[in-house]
Amino acid sequence: MERIKFLGTFVDNLTMEETIEEVDKYIYKNKPLHLIGVNADKINELSKDFKLRKLVNECGIINADGASVVWASKVLHLPIKERVAGIDLMLKLVKLAEKKKYSIYLLGAKQEVVEKTAETLQKSYPGLHIAGYRNGYFTESEWPQIAEEIEKSKAQLVFVGISSPMKEYLIEYFQKRNMNQVFMGVGGSFDVISGNIPRAPEWVQKIGMEWFFRFLQEPQRLWKRYLIGNTIFVFRVYREKFRKSV
């Protein structure tokens, strides 16, 4: 894989299909994988948190999960093939799991949301084996118990829908226990799949404005992330472009 150095972190220059092929190899070989996507907000976060940046940079696959990252790569003449949106990748991996008879585990969100997510996925993919699920409301003291539950389930794909940076540290903990699953952080994907939060129309996604659609849904919670965060990200991109040109 071509791994591009990008504003203090790395991004693997993979398409959606190439990512799925790589994940399939990990599952087939029973090798552990932390699959992560980075967007403008995540890259801003990594610039301030060295420990988290080190953890992310050591992930097996780092996707460009954000139109802003693809845009920035072009400005910096490091063109990334395409955006690999987390929720789309999750659903394609679920489809792969149904086809290849892999089992999945859902971890995160409120109990009613994760239950509805499991129900919706089962209806959409009748041949899918959901090995288990549980909500994302727990303390660090419960991590060993959750790890045991996942190991007993024998799930091969684990989708983690809890907030950052807890999900990254939780997955790191799992991997230090030598758990061989493919772990993927999926943010708020359970809320979308369950119907709890609507996703932007396809045409909005295509023009790279899905972030604005999300902002309009929850302006009080997201204004700082998108309005201030995106401004900082754009500034950092052009500062890096200027630095390289000097």
Blueprint (SSEs and pairs):
Elements: E1 3-6, E2 9-12, H1 16-28, E3 33-38, H2 40-48, H3 50-57, E4 61-64, H4 67-75, H5 86-100, E5 103-108, H6 111-124, E6 129-134, H7 143-153, E7 157-161, H8 166-176, E8 182-185, H9 189-193, H10 202-206, H11 210-217, H12 219-245
Parallel strand pairs: 3-4, 3-8, 5-6, 5-7, 7-8
Antiparallel strand pairs: 1-2
Helix pairs in contact: 1-5, 2-3, 2-12, 11-12
Report what the structure shows.
With 246 residues, this protein is of the alpha/beta class. It is built from 12 helices and 8 strands. A 6-stranded parallel sheet has the order 4-3-8-7-5-6, sandwiched between helices. Helix 8 links the parallel strand 7 (157-161) and strand 8. Helix 2 crosses helix 3 (50-57) and helix 2 (40-48) packs across helix 12. The longest helix is centred in the C-terminal third of the chain and has 27 residues, at 219-245. The protein is globular and about 55 Å long.
Q: Would you tell me the overall average pLDDT?
A: 93
Structural class: alpha/beta
Q: Low-confidence stretches at least 5 residues in length (pLDDT < 50)?
A: none
Q: Helix content range of the residues, please?
A: 40-55%
Number of strands: 8
Instruction: State the end-to-end distance.
Output: 30 Å
Rg: 18 Å
Form type: globular
Strand content: 15-25%
How do the helices and strands follow one another from N- to C-terminus?
EEHEHHEHHEHEHEHEHHHH
Features:
two-stranded antiparallel sheet, 6-stranded parallel beta sheet, globular
